[in-house]
Design goal:
Radius of gyration: 18 Å
Order of helices and strands: EHEHHHEHEHEEHHHEH
Helix content: 40-55%
Distance between the termini: 12 Å
Strand content: 5-15%
Shape: globular
Number of helices: 10
Length: about 210
């Protein structure tokens, strides 16, 4: 089973991706992770991607597609995978069809006002744990390691709004793209708890 995980920033894709990968034994393919691995490994594609990132530019679609195409040829991707963060637009989706067979696009639907609250209220720790101010009761330390919690620089209303606008303009059209192919499944309870959302995902994936 090869699936695409779709959802706006703050929809909970990261949390659900881990649960899905574990339960269904799928390789979690994150474009961010692939970029970092190629850059660290000093590959030709990694060097090319780094040149754009260092210049403060977006990595071109062609480079992103080439990196994903290469990753899907690895042995660990042959028994099924979940794409997270790719495709981000219609061009990437059309290119993906040239080198991969996608069975399902899983879209986590969450109200935009809630997305704003989720992201702007997020506090994180250097160990990777993430919290929301509504559950911290004023606490400023990580419950897991005791580290100091902080707010990411881009987790502010202005930046979040810009990220959502980018998503709505570039990525949201993929919803209708995969719907037209009969491959779209939408998680309508995306505003529930992580376990509630995963419960609906299990019903969809079987």
């Amino acid at each position: 089973m090869n699936i695409i995980l779709l959802g706006a920033p703050g929809a909970g894709k990261g949390t659900q991706a881990s649960k899905i990968a574990e339960k269904y034994n799928l390789l979690h393919v994150s474009t961010g992770d692939i970029f970092r691995a190629n850059i660290k490994g000093g590959t030709e594609i990694g060097k090319l991607a780094k040149s754009y990132i260092d210049a403060g530019k977006l990595v071109p679609d062609e480079v992103t597609c080439a990196i994903v195409k290469d990753r899907l040829t690895w042995a660990d991707a042959q028994n099924g995978y979940m794409l997270d963060g790719f495709p981000r637009n219609l061009f990437q989706a059309e290119e993906l069809e040239k080198f991969a067979k996608i069975d399902l696009c899983l879209n986590i639907d969450v109200d935009e006002a809630l997305l704003m609250d989720r992201i702007c209220g997020r506090r994180v720790c250097k160990c990777g744990e993430s919290y929301h101010v509504s559950t911290l009761n004023g606490a400023t330390k990580c419950r897991k390691c005791g580290g100091e919690l902080y707010q990411r620089e881009d987790d502010n209303p202005r930046t979040v709004k810009a990220r959502l606008e980018t998503y709505n303009t570039q990525t949201a059209p993929l919803i209708n793209y995969y719907k037209a192919q009969g491959k779209l499944a939408t998680v309508t309870s995306g505003e529930g708890s992580p376990d509630e959302v995963f419960g609906q995902i299990i019903k969809i994936l079987g």
